[in-house]
Amino acid sequence: MSNEMVLTVESEFKQTSPSMLNALVHQQSLLGAIPVAVCWPCSAVSLAGALEAAQARLIEPILVGPERQIRELALSEGFDLNGYHFMEASSEEEAAASATELCRSGHTAALMKGSLHTDLLMHFVLQKTTGLRTPRRLSHVFVLEAPLYDRTLFITDAAINIYPTLEDKVDILKNVIELAHSLGVSLPKVAILSAVETVCAKITSTIDAAALCKMADRGQITGAILDGPLAFDTAVSAKAAEVKNLHSPVAGEADILLAPDLESGNMLAKQLEYLGGASLAGIVLGAKVPIILTSRADSAESRVASCAIASLLAQTHEHLPI
Fold this sequence. Notes:
This protein is α/β, with parallel strands linked by helices. Helix content is 42%, strand content 17%. It folds into two domains: 18-134 and 287-322, Rossmann fold; 136-283, 3-Layer(aba) Sandwich (Isopropylmalate Dehydrogenase). The chain has an eleven-stranded mixed β-sheet, sandwiched between helices. The chain is globular, with a radius of gyration of 20 Å.
């Protein structure tokens, strides 16, 4: 890369403004903790995340899992579990069922994933009669702050819907738009991602993008400005859009990135985190309660930020206990 190219890139991208996630953690800590079922916190990171969120006055955790094992883990890590509540569960399956029931019965306002696999937890969440389903399809959102992008990014869906259909994408968009509103983005700009900016019959994501934009024109999707298909570079870079002679109300200013599928969304978020230095939080929407869903490798800080988002959602939705 030439020096001229480096200067062009550096002049376009700016350091992000003060962290919205840090501000949210502080704001929600002043409002009081919500009760949260923490499912199988049997790793140091998952237990630390729950305890740090509790110490930050964001959550009142009920630790669902093998109490003896969790206490031994806490002792080895130097964590103090005095005053915390337990619900005994001898297996991951039993923990997932019990944690789901705590939320379904109204005893807890949110569900937090510990060190078990996402698929196992979601199996119990998605049960028709004993789970947490609503008419809205569940979807996952990464709320992400990248050092070189001057606004918070919402990336969806990167954890739940593997190959979403057009109908699925409508619910995924509605979920993330409502989340953006809750976090103070009154009219988010949505980039519907693909590999190209033109509609191509051989690339399904471009057809879906065109349909979603027309649905927004007809009032079927509201509360945001949609455009697509957009490649990632034009979604976040006004310079790239200018070079490609692309005129778009979203290009270079995207708040929400709608990924074509789980694989691309997950890789995009993880690349920004591990190679781009981004900080992130993860939340599942569309269930009866917010679900704090982070990777087993995510930091305790990421889990705390995710708890702050769940706290906000639980305390601003009347149908959820607070």
